[in-house]
Design brief:
By secondary structure, the protein is of the alpha/beta class. Among the domains are: 37-195 and 332-358, ABC transporter transmembrane region fold, CATH 1.20.1560.10; 197-310. It has 22 helices and ten strands. The structure holds adenosine-5'-diphosphate and magnesium ion.
Length: 628
Amino acid sequence: MTATDDQTSHTGANAAMHAPNFEPVAVEPRFPPPAARVDPNVDLGWMRRLWPVVRSHRRPLITGVLGGIVAIALGVAAPAVARSAIDAVDSGDRSGLNTLVLVLLGLAVGRFVFGAAYRYALFELAWEVETDLRALLYEHLTTLSFSYYDRTQSGQVISRANSDIRSIQVFLAFAPLICMSVLTFLVAFVFMLTIHVQLTLVALATLPGVYVVGQKLRNTVFPLTWVAQARMAELATIVDENINGTRVVKSFAAEERQINALAETAEQLRWTNVEAIRARARYNPTIEALPRVGMAMVLLYGGLLAIDGQVSVGTLFAFSAYVIMLQAPFRMFGFVILQAQRASASAQRIFEVLDEDPEIVDEEGAPDLVATEGRVSFDNVSFGYGDSDATAVLNGFSLVVEPGETVAIVGRTGSGKSTVARLLTRFYEASGGSIAIDDQDTHKVTLASLRHHIGLVFDEPFLFSTSVRDNIAYGAPFATDEEIIRAAKSAQAHQFITELDDGYDTVVGERGYTLSGGQRQRIAIARTLLENPPILVLDDATSAIDVTVEAAIHDALHGLLDQRTTILIAHRLSTIALADRVVLLDRGNVVASGTHQELLASEPLYVQILAEADRSEASEEDIVGGER
Ligand SMILES: Nc1ncnc2c1ncn2[C@@H]1O[C@H](COP(=O)(O)OP(=O)(O)O)[C@@H](O)[C@H]1O
Ligand SMILES: [Mg+2]
């Protein structure tokens, strides 16, 4: 098979029109997107902003709240019924006792059913909101521009997606439960007051103690949990850097230092956790003992009242049951307040990402790009990564690449060559001038169609941890095996792929580290060729590939490129030789343009850059030997 076969079979008869119609990769969503979004009004409190998402899960929300109210009412009623039953025993009322026991059984069954229902519903609600938040966050992250990722630490984003969403979930699961137990408390309290005011006060006398000791416990433990979380994050970072940076660590033989850094953080984590458990061990038994004291006081004072005939034995029983029942809300109310603070902080961090405006978006009603020829024109483009003009990278940059033409951009490192490629695909927005494809302003068309027309291969290709086949088919998931192999052959990758253990099914290690740099670059080229874009930009894409292999790739590309507009960013003579025309870039401007020979004759800077590139190339080969 020749390279020309590739071309015709990829594009059909009309070779000039490589991809006249833009069709987005058709992916059927398997899961419906979240029904609601976070309220965009940044002035609202976090719960108000989150409310639309919570409310969209109407069924679990209503089931949870109503079920909870019923379950609590049944729970509070039980001691009251038991009280009547015991009093029925006292007065020898057999049939009354039977009915009351049946009612008690009914209450137990009802509490079981509603208790199960509301717990299930509330947790379901919390997990559904968590899933929604995760989807919303990730969806938003995909819309954010390169500039956002330039200034964001990936660890931060990952932690937002994990622990922050989790702490909101915990709050959502427990807050309604605890609010309802507080309700229990109020109902029971009123009920007790109606029976006997003084006995109620005695029964509740220990509760302030529970609250105070609980508060002490929280004041000690809560800061410790924050510290523990921070230490955990540090540990994760150390482990992550050790694994990802293992090549650097080992080449400097710095394992000892890394082990020490980890041990130190691990030791701090241990200390924090032990301190927390020490506080728990000290305070928790007190909290558990207090209700027993309360019960003893009820028995003592209530017992005296009963002997005097002022209250019944049933009342005594009911009160001691309430003393136990009322501890829980008291113990947990403080917890829910803390959890609310934590969830609030987490929500702010998540909203911070969600409120980040994507800088580069489709204009309202923008049409798809339809490139029939593939002329690329930069007109007086200026751009800088920062806001100030002092850091301008491009300064009135103008360049027209004719359809089917191959242009090499040559310049010193840092002269802005890669920036040109990033502006063409609108990874960044030019601050002045215009960029057009076939006279269609790239700002006026959809981003997806624009990027579909441009195949951009970077010098450091990113491979996913899947099979070689899936990596090549990334941009065209429905490609057949023949198409994949054809693309791999054009990129001179087929040979080495078949020599891998599982051929095309070989799973490459993380980021493709089981392959050499040159092999990764060839897979990246195959990935782009498979998509067959009418405009190809190779940004140092063959820098790690052997010169002889590169020549073979270029032979294949030559066949493919005839009708394709190509921009080569390169410093190797062999790569530059492929171009019809060379433009020389310096200080953000095209300073010369012509054939290789012409520039060689007229531009000292050009000669100098090539000589430097040649020298570093030669020395690198001396050191590494062949393909890197
Ligand atoms: N993401 C970025 N954020 C800030 N500055 C950048 C970024 N990328 C590149 N630069 C700067 O822009 C200039 C041009 O970079 P680049 O286009 O990558 O050069 P080249 O590809 O010619 O080596 C350099 O001075 C570089 O430091
Ligand atoms: Mg570059």
